[in-house]
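Lab notes, practical 5.
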Amino acid sequence: MDTHDMVPGSGGHSAGILVAVGANLSRRTGEGPLQTCHWAVAEIGHIDTIRVEAVSCWYESAPIPPSGQPPYVNGMVRLSGDITPEALLSALQDIEARAGRVRTIANAARPLDLDIIAMGDLVRAGPDPIVPHPRACLRAFVLLPLRDVAPDWRDPVSGEGIDTLLARVADQQITRLPG
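Output from the prediction step:
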């Protein structure tokens, strides 16, 4: 791994490390999607070398693409610290597995989905993970919670701000959960 892939989680004008949290099935231990998302945030906080700085409000959204799945609970976590994209992806996939996620087909219902949305201003097309997340700017369930934790965030690829990006997804069904 090249040292330029070591990503500081804060500094400069970047929003740090942004991880989307989502779920639409109960965890193997019986907790529902919202409880699983809270559990996942706590687990993310145990990853060495990073710290949870902020957690968004929680939202409920329809699956994309539309399907017969139950709605998703979605949120965003802003982290700081130093970690490589590969190490963060590995740690997040371990948390997903402990929640009972089994990778089957794309966009399948799941008890937990953790996606790296951005790591500072890093732009990389590969190897996995691709950063920033290639579909983040197309999803209201990513952008609304992202605005909660990083209102000045700009897409490192296009340079566009969060409000510009949100205007393009205004037709997507999403509701802020109480609390």
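Observations recorded by the TA: Confidence is low (pLDDT under 50) at residues 1-13. The chain has four helices and seven strands.
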